[in-house]
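User: C-alpha cells for Phytocyanin domain-containing protein, please.
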Amino acid sequence: MAALNFSSTATTCFLLVISLLTFSPTGSNGDYGWQGGHATFYGGGDASGTM
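Assistant: Done. Predicted C-alpha cells:
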C-alpha cells in the first residue's frame, strides 16, 4: 500500500510542476517591452479625413 501512496504522490507532484511551468505568465507572455508602431492618416493634420 505504501508503494501506491508514493506513486500517487509522485504523480501529483509531477502534474503540479508541469502545470506551473506550462501556465506560468512569464513563460507564455514574455515582456518584450514596447514595440514601435506606425499609422497612416489620410486627410488634414487632425486626421478628420480618415472617418
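User: Anything notable?

Assistant: Helices lie at 2-22, 25-28.
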